[in-house]
Amino acid sequence: MLRPMLVGRLLQALELHGGEQVLEIGTGSGYVSACLARLGGQVQTIELHPEVAELARENLQGIAGGSPVRVVTGTAWSSTKRSATTSSC
Is the full-model pTM beyond 0.90? Predict the structure, then answer.
């Protein structure tokens, strides 16, 4: 997990203005996904491990400010072949 200060710098460096589509590889807890969604991005995040993806879905329920966060279980290569669970947060 990244330190919050590092996440802040990462988000500033992206210079998001709202409305962007963001692909995140490695969902983890969903913290960065939630931050990206709060900045107005439509976020698709890919997590390799099903149990970690489920944890992220649970964490994202109700905290990402109304922007949709789509959590996909799989690899970046196989994500288009698998069904995804969508969390609207």
Answer: no
